[in-house]
């Protein structure tokens, strides 16, 4: 080497990245991997006495594979040659073998050949090394990020010792960073730089065990941070985040954020929401949670929430956990995602909870009941309302109920897109239908009797939406959807009109059932129109539903104008559309005008006149008898209001009126359900608010009109005492109406 080459090498070393400059030169400078190079370990002894056999170092990037090879190069008396499998070819291999033979024959000196990324060599190149490893011409040291048992020639593997290097611990990474900051010769010691503890913790936490990542981020932080007036450079948490381009998430493994995130993950899987489950699991992984902790939670979920509905779930999680232990990070994330998606999309059953029922029976005498529907009932329930309003999916039809799992900012975001192949084809249909019911329930704006009692719901949106979510969520939505399409018997080539698109619950079910026909949907406002139209764009052009901005009063003319001619539909479907119409017979006659001769109208209508009475839920003992009687009379006035289209009809009365006025076949059946509903104090108070001049009278107003304000307040107090914060059996009645015939 001449003086110019040496000067060039010196400049290159001086300007090399910090991670390269700080590469350990001896085992004493080496951080981590104590399981293979710790005091007294086999590899450390072999390096120190220069008695090496062929080795393969296997582990993630930044864990020290190349560094260990360089330490060996500095300590061995053997000739040390190095090639990179990405850049090298057959010529480089031959040159290395020739140099090794020459060294052995002329000087009796063995050769260590280090091959970085050895898995990049093809099979022929790896085979070419085998005889020279076997006869001792070279001692092979290979480095690979891939599992050598799969990616390296089995004959080479059998002749080598495999050492697996693990990702460095946060403590190791912090030590690496501190060494770089204090080293004045090769590191940043001459820059007078310091780093805050939380900034260093962040670098160590998000580097995923990669020392190179920590050093690169540290160097960037120091180089881009202006010195303070005293000449020092201080690296803060914000600077650390910018330097490593990895945002710090609020996640404390021993604090509230940890427990809340874990709880959200568990309940998202239990609630069959794969998108939310992936989101919360990604947050845990991103924040540095131990994947084995996540697997432990999924082992529990597989039995607690999936159970015998899919007995394979536990085996899937066990296999994924075993594969994760075998593969490690980062590829092991596939196994985390696989187990998570399987559990989230699996059918649910809580039959394993029978064991806990037995435990509860044993512990009854302690009177320490633990409600199963809270978010995280061990902390801050009263202070922050953690878990308040959580709906336990197993209490509902199909072990699912609509409720929000994702954060509000991500509501409606889709992460998981199941394919249409094999068993996942069934999953795709189930997940899609659940998503549609979820969105419908969360944004349901149907009028209900108790909204009528409240008055103008727009002024009480959150409370009303909460009530609607509970009374019309999930189970009743799925039942209504299935009942409608069973009655309509839509054919593959059928033409279907959804009378009120809302969020597309019926629209997209119709599109699935009539792929060779056509679907029209009426959107009653601009927001609804934009929402359903955006969802419809998922379909190809020929199968895409036609979304029309219209209303129940003008839909016939609007359809004719959009189509350019009259349209006759094979099926008209709708949910709770009659309640908004004063003259129901005239409206049905109008629907028949756009129905084909062999077509039908199928509606699912909540029968509020047959629904739950509050007076049936309160006691009539001596102290409450008067208030209970007054409540009953006020409800009679509410349910018997002839001017209110929500309550001024019954199934039998509607059938008689229609068959008398219209030549049609009219069939109607009713379905009653009595699920548990939680009555909140806010909901009770909303029944007693003072409505505006053009609003419906509230229950409290009717009571005050009949019996005075004092009596109204007495009834209010009675409802709070007997119903507030309790799960109440709440009866609802749905009428399924099917009409066939033509208007004369």
Structural notes for this entry:
With 744 residues, the protein is α/β, with parallel strands linked by helices. The chain folds into four domains: 132 residues, P-loop containing nucleotide triphosphate hydrolases (Rossmann fold), CATH 3.40.50; 75 residues, Helicase, Ruva Protein, domain 3 (Orthogonal Bundle); 155 residues, Zinc Finger, Delta Prime, domain 3; 319 residues, Vaccinia Virus protein VP39 (Rossmann fold, 3-Layer(aba) Sandwich), CATH 3.40.50. It is 48% helix and 13% strand. It is built from 33 helices and 16 strands. A seven-stranded mixed sheet has the order 10-9-8-11-12-16-13, sandwiched between helices. A five-stranded parallel sheet has the order 2-3-4-1-5, with helices on both faces. Strand 2, helix 6 and strand 3 form a beta-alpha-beta unit. Helix 16 runs antiparallel to helix 17. The longest helix has 22 residues. The protein is elongated, with a radius of gyration of 36 Å. The N and C termini lie far apart (106 Å). The N terminus is likely disordered.
């Amino acid at each position: 080497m001449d003086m110019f080459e040496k000067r060039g090498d010196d400049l290159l070393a001086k300007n090399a990245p910090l991670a390269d400059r700080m590469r350990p030169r001896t085992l004493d400078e080496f951080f981590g991997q104590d399981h293979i190079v710790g005091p007294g370990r086999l590899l450390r002894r072999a390096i120190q006495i220069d008695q090496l056999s062929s080795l393969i170092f296997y582990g993630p990037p930044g864990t020290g594979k190349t560094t260990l090879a360089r330490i060996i190069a500095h300590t061995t008396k053997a000739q040390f040659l190095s090639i990179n499998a990405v850049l090298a070819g057959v010529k480089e291999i031959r040159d290395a073998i020739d140099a090794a033979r020459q060294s052995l024959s002329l000087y009796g000196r063995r050769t260590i050949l280090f091959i970085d990324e050895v898995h990049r060599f093809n099979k022929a190149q790896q085979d070419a090394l085998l005889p020279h490893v076997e006869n001792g011409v070279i001692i092979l040291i290979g480095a690979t990020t891939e599992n050598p048992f799969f990616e390296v020639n089995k004959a080479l593997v059998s002749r080598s010792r495999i050492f697996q290097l693990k990702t460095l611990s946060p403590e190791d990474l912090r030590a690496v960073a501190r060494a770089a900051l204090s080293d004045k010769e090769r590191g940043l010691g001459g820059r007078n730089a310091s780093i805050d503890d939380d900034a260093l913790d962040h670098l160590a936490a998000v580097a995923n065990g990669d020392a190179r990542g920590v050093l690169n981020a540290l160097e960037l932080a120091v180089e881009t941070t202006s010195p303070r007036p005293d000449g020092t450079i201080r690296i803060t948490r914000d600077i650390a985040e910018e330097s490593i381009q990895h945002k710090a998430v609020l996640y404390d493994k021993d604090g509230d954020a940890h427990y809340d995130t874990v709880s959200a993950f568990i309940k998202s899987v239990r609630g069959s929401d794969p998108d939310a489950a992936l989101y919360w699991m990604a947050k845990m992984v991103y924040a540095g949670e131990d994947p084995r902790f996540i697997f432990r939670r999924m082992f529990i979920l597989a039995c607690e929430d999936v159970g015998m509905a899919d007995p394979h779930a536990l085996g899937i999680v066990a296999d994924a956990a075993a594969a994760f232990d075998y593969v490690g990070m980062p590829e092991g994330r596939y196994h985390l995602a696989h187990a998570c998606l399987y559990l989230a999309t699996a059918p649910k059953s809580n039959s394993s909870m029978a064991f806990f029922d037995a435990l509860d029976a044993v512990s009854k005498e302690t009177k320490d009941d633990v409600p199963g529907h809270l978010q995280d009932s061990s902390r801050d329930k009263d202070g922050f309302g953690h878990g308040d309003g959580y709906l336990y999916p197993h209490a509902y039809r199909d072990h699912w109920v609509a409720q929000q799992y994702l954060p509000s900012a991500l509501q409606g975001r889709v992460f998981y897109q199941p394919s249409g192949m094999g068993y996942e084809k069934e999953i795709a249909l189930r997940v899609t239908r659940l998503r549609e019911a979820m969105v419908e329930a969360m944004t349901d704006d149907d009028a209900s009797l108790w909204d009528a009692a409240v008055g103008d719901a727009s002024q009480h949106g959150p409370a009303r939406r909460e009530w609607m979510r509970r009374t019309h969520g999930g189970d009743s939505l799925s039942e209504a959807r299935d009942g409608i399409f069973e009655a309509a018997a839509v054919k593959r080539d059928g033409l279907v009109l959804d009378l009120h698109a809302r969020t597309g619950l019926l629209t997209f079910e119709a599109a699935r059932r009539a792929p060779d026909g056509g679907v029209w949907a009426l959107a009653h406002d601009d927001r609804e129109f934009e929402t359903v139209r955006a969802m419809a764009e998922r379909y190809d052009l020929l199968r895409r539903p036609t979304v029309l901005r219209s209303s129940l009063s003008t839909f016939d003319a609007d359809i004719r104008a959009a189509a350019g001619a009259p349209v006759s539909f094979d099926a008209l479907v709708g949910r709770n559309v009659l309640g908004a119409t004063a003259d129901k017979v005239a409206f049905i006659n109008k629907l028949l005008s756009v129905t084909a001769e062999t077509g039908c109208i199928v509606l699912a209508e909540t029968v509020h006149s047959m629904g739950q009475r509050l007076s049936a839920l309160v006691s009539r003992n001596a102290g409450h008898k008067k208030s209970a009687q007054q409540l009953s009379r006020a409800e009679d006035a509410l349910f018997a209001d002839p001017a209110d289209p929500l309550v001024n009809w019954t199934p039998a009365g509607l059938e008689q009126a229609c068959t008398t006025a219209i030549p049609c076949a009219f069939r109607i059946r009713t379905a009653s359900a009595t699920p548990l509903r939680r009555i909140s104090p806010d909901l009770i108070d909303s029944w007693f608010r003072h409505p505006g001049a053009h609003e419906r009278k509230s229950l409290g107003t009717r009571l005050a009109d009949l019996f005075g304000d004092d009596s109204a307040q007495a009834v209010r107090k009675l409802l709070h005492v007997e119903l507030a914060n309790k799960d109440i059996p709440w009866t609802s009645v749905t009428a399924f109406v099917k009409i066939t015939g033509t208007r004369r």
